[in-house]
Automatic annotation (TrEMBL):
Family under the similarity heading: Belongs to the bacterial ribosomal protein bL19 family.
GO CC terms of this entry: mitochondrial large ribosomal subunit
GO molecular function: structural constituent of ribosome
NCBIfam families from the UniProt entry: rplS_bact
Stated name of the protein: Ribosomal protein L19
Source organism (scientific name): Verdigellas peltata
Length: 118
């Protein structure tokens, strides 16, 4: 109990990033990640589909699924990470479930969801 109260006090003092667009499960998004190559700093972009979203104050995260050279890869992205520079919604889709884990077992042709026009 004491630990939970302590964590809540710390979270209340911290400011979290809220400048990103509201992302929903099923959306196809573009994420910019800060990368350091020695002395160089740059932003690398990648596209992915959101298959799950977990909302807590300090540890809000997205589970993303992307296709890299024909191989399906999942990534966990913490929204309050200092490495995340921007998130942009490319296409919005309608998903009936809050977690679309069934998306993993489908072929490329069957992974289409109903698109919402933005």
């Amino acid at each position: 109990m004491a630990n939970k109260k302590f964590v809540k006090k710390i979270e209340a003092k911290l400011s979290f990033k809220n400048d990103f667009e509201e992302v929903h499960v099923g959306d196809f998004i573009k994420i910019g990640m800060k990368i350091e190559d020695g002395a160089k700093k740059r932003i690398q972009f990648f596209n992915a589909t959101v298959i799950a979203k977990k909302n807590t104050n300090s540890q809000s995260c997205l589970i993303l699924r992307q296709l890299i050279q024909g191989i399906r890869v999942e990534r966990i992205l913490f929204l309050n990470s200092p490495l995340v520079s921007q998130i942009k919604i490319l296409r919005a889709f309608k998903a009936r479930q809050s977690k679309i884990y069934f998306y993993r077992n489908r072929s490329k042709k069957n992974t289409r969801l109903k698109q919402i026009i933005i």
